[in-house]
Amino acid sequence: MGNKLRRNLFQQIEPTAWPHRGLSPLNWLLVVVILLATVSAILETEPLLARHHAAGFRVAELIFCAVFVAEYATRFWTIAESPSKHHIWRKRAGFVFSLAGMIDLLVIVATFSTLLVGNVAALRLLRLLRIVRLAKLGRMSLAMRRLQQAVVSRRYELGLTMGLALGLLILGASALYFIEGELQPEKFGSIPRALWWAVITMTTIGYGDVYPITVLGKIVAAFVAIAGIGLIAMPTGILAAAFSDAMQEEHEFED
Amino acid sequence: MGNKLRRNLFQQIEPTAWPHRGLSPLNWLLVVVILLATVSAILETEPLLARHHAAGFRVAELIFCAVFVAEYATRFWTIAESPSKHHIWRKRAGFVFSLAGMIDLLVIVATFSTLLVGNVAALRLLRLLRIVRLAKLGRMSLAMRRLQQAVVSRRYELGLTMGLALGLLILGASALYFIEGELQPEKFGSIPRALWWAVITMTTIGYGDVYPITVLGKIVAAFVAIAGIGLIAMPTGILAAAFSDAMQEEHEFED
Amino acid sequence: MGNKLRRNLFQQIEPTAWPHRGLSPLNWLLVVVILLATVSAILETEPLLARHHAAGFRVAELIFCAVFVAEYATRFWTIAESPSKHHIWRKRAGFVFSLAGMIDLLVIVATFSTLLVGNVAALRLLRLLRIVRLAKLGRMSLAMRRLQQAVVSRRYELGLTMGLALGLLILGASALYFIEGELQPEKFGSIPRALWWAVITMTTIGYGDVYPITVLGKIVAAFVAIAGIGLIAMPTGILAAAFSDAMQEEHEFED
Amino acid sequence: MGNKLRRNLFQQIEPTAWPHRGLSPLNWLLVVVILLATVSAILETEPLLARHHAAGFRVAELIFCAVFVAEYATRFWTIAESPSKHHIWRKRAGFVFSLAGMIDLLVIVATFSTLLVGNVAALRLLRLLRIVRLAKLGRMSLAMRRLQQAVVSRRYELGLTMGLALGLLILGASALYFIEGELQPEKFGSIPRALWWAVITMTTIGYGDVYPITVLGKIVAAFVAIAGIGLIAMPTGILAAAFSDAMQEEHEFED
């Protein structure tokens, strides 16, 4: 009877073992808890909220921690049902020392430490690791593999356009350093400083903290800006096309 | 004779019943009135205009209101001509309780209330709902269905790239919170605050109200910016391709 | 003999009559003069340049004017060689009252007026009309027709995505008007004022002259920004794909 | 025996002579040294670093210089193994006077001069030329040729869309010059000044140093912004598609 419960729980908790389409109810619940825990960890860093709702955040953390411990224990217990032929304790060791298992454990330890020693900054970041676990779920890991394949299949186009973009970045930063380096030493007084301007300009963000003020500087900046949008947008376009193609092939095989 | 008028009016007012290509003259007129009413509702919020042209806006609203009441009454009367086999009053109840019918009624009530109790802010927003009605017209509703299909057919690519973009958003905001949280507490003093910076940076808007000022912060921001444009632009590219494909298939079936 | 010169000149000056590939030497010369005249008209508006080089600009204008008069006279004389069967003076009248002919004449009159009555602002703009004439040249006019076809062939996708973008624009502006209208009356005090913010945000320009300062305003702005880049970028992607397809078909027919 | 060493070295140093896939170990080493030398040249311009680590930068430059001299000597010696039938000294002269050979020599002379006469600004720029050499490596030069072909194959689309973008740029700048030229003379007081605004707006950078402040100026700027993103993004999309197609054909031939 214990074995039957264990088998059912394994199907519920292990996405690849779920015999139906999509995610099991238990995994949907875990997705919701992970998202809530992430939102809670983000909101808790806000002093205005943390001050007035300290008790609430503490209770929420306790509940999340309990869920994650229960999940870890369930995985540890039910991994015995996995189809591999290894000994049951070998499977359990395999889970504990897998990347997923160690992230799970790290998150639990980080959450516990928060409850004991208080909300240290570094522990907060560790708790945000939970969100990484969502990447393991079902279709997403397939889409991720496709994305990797898309990157690999277009590595020369991507390499070239990124290389050209990097070259333009350095060229633009060097030009502005020569032209406005003495006029605005805080902003263009060295190539590394000018690179900040070049990145913020070529990505078209344009905060407005740094911009050329001489006529020549503006002319050069205009050329960098126009050439830049092409060079920055091209890898994106190539990647989107490759990724879209790779996913379409997948759909075709499916039908 | 009354039935003939009713049939003609039904063909004029119901886009799907119009036997010719495109929109009927009456529907073109209604499109123009809806657009004018929307522009009028927008302009009326401007104090400089509202003060000097209060009477003009009042008259315009009265005319728009009359048109919408007349339209509602016509629809209520002519729906009897619809091809369904239900009883005539069943059809009319169907129209009154349909989403389109309720929006029409809401808009009329909101416009009347404005004329009676004065221009309350919430009523203004209700009057803007009129523009939603344009979506029902002929080809547009088909294009809308195609857009929905395009979103559904690429849900995994969209989900993954949006998930990655969200992950980068949280990662970038957390990094800047750790690096500049103490230096610029108003801007990076918590992850939610830093998220505002991350969104405005990754969408390449870059207002310039928040930006990193330390060397490390700038280096991290540069990486977030470069990775971000790719991750934000990818879902857009995928969606545009899918939408374009879906519409092309439509054109093929048509020929 | 006069007829032979006229025939040769006609082939030189009329792009469609040129029997060889590309543009005739005379047309290349005219392209260069038009570009120089445009650059000169642009630079002349700069007070720092206009003050010190007034004589130079005057001489340049005189030369450009002479060239355009000579060109106009040549076209008027040689149009007689055009293959249409109309009477010679009918052809000339056709040239004078064509759009191209009237732009040519307008530009000449504007240039002369500048030389006589001084550099009035409105005349400057007229002189910039010269650049429009480049659109008539050879392949360009074909590419322009293809671009028009591309716009027409995807009019429903373009209409829908532009409509959605417009809807989001109005929705976002209305939301910010409700949220920050009283806090920043100069910037969000009416929907038309908030629309300036919405356009500059959704096009990702982000000057930084207007941005939300409340928490709720920032949350809404973040959603508008993320949804906006998709909706603004989609018509562009659709148009680029359609235009690229249309030009490719052209290349295929050519081979 | 000397010939055998020379043949091996030639295969190591000349990417096209390497009989295996990818780059030879020696070329990988040179790539790393070039990247390190570039980073070093960039960082050395930063006063805060240069002051405290002057000796370190000097030693690094010495090492990079020695590597580049050794590489140049090796190329000069081993070029004799190249498959062409010319006399051995003819081949060497060919290398010395090739573009690649002259860049190599220029970089060495610039590095030496830096060590002798001190870090003059112009010499720094020359040292950055090293990065250009990466473009010669293996697949990259093929991808570069494909990019050139993509540009050539779509020259009419690119020409037209760039021409339209340029026209809109001039039109937008002229309009703002007429509307706000007197109100903001420093920013819109001439068409060249207004062009700076137009470029920074149409590339969606939007530093925020220049923006319209009148209602009419904002309305015109909104239209320029919306039309501009389409016109600027279209050449990019066309180029990305053409480049992607050209590279795919390459992959097909390969299989």
Which helices and strands occur, and which strands form pairs?
The structure is a homotetramer of 255-residue chains.
Chain A: H1 2-13, H2 25-44, H3 47-52, H4 54-78, H5 88-96, H6 99-117, H7 121-128, H8 138-153, H9 155-180, H10 185-188, H11 191-202, H12 215-254
Instruction: Report the helical percentage of chain A.
Output: over 70%
Oligomer: homotetramer
Shape of chain A: extended
Instruction: Please tell me the overall pLDDT of chain A.
Output: 83
Beta fraction of chain A: under 5%
Number of helices of chain A: 12
Order of helices and strands of chain A: HHHHHHHHHHHH
Q: Count the strands of chain A?
A: 0
Category from helices, strands and their pairing of chain A: mainly alpha
Low-pLDDT stretches of chain A are none
Radius of gyration based on Cα positions of chain A: 25 Å
Largest sheet of chain A: none
Describe this structure in words.
4 copies of one chain form a homotetramer. By secondary structure, chain A is an all-alpha fold. The first copy, chain A, has 12 helices and no strands. The first copy, chain A, has helices at 2-13, 25-44, 47-52, 54-78, 88-96, 99-117, 121-128, 138-153, 155-180, 185-188, 191-202, 215-254. The radius of gyration of chain A is 25 Å and the shape is extended. The two termini of chain A are 39 Å apart. Chains in contact: A-B, A-C, A-D, B-C, B-D, C-D. The A-B interface holds A 38, 42-43, 45-47, 121, 124-125, 128, 131-132, 134-135, 139-140, 142-144, 147, 195-196, 199-200, 203-209, 232-233, 235-237, 239-241, 243-244, 247, 251 and B 153-154, 156-157, 159-161, 163, 167, 170-171, 174, 177-178, 189-193, 195, 201, 204-208, 211, 218, 222, 225-226, 228-230, 233-234, 236-238, 241-242.
